[in-house]
Design a protein that fits this description.
This protein has 84 residues and is mostly beta strands. The chain has a single domain (21-80), classed as 3-layer Sandwich (Rieske Iron-sulfur Protein), CATH 2.102.10. 5% of the residues lie in helices and 29% in strands. The protein contains 1 helix and 6 strands. The chain has one helix at 7-10; strands spanning 27-32, 35-41, 47-51, 65-66, 71-72, 79-80. The strands form 2 sheets. The chain has a 3-stranded antiparallel sheet with strand order 1-2-3, with no helix packed on it. The chain has a 3-stranded antiparallel sheet with strand order 4-5-6, with no helix packed on it. β2 and β3 form a beta hairpin.
Amino acid sequence: MEIDSAAPLREMWYYAMPSSRLGAGRVIAKTFFGEQWLFARTNDGTAFALKDFCPHRGVPLRFGRFDGHEIQCRFHGWRFDRTV
């Protein structure tokens, strides 16, 4: 059995960036523990993060379009919001 030594670290909160860097309607991609994450702030100011890939084909969502509410995958147009 293989043990994931990073597993306990994944269950903690980490500083990603200053809040002021993530303006309304913006997205920023970052890597944590070898995984790509996408940080976004909706037009109403709500910040959220999600894994930077579309589950359909694995295309990075950072290449898609963010309308200030949802991120649309560039490949097939699947849409994701902060409730995913």
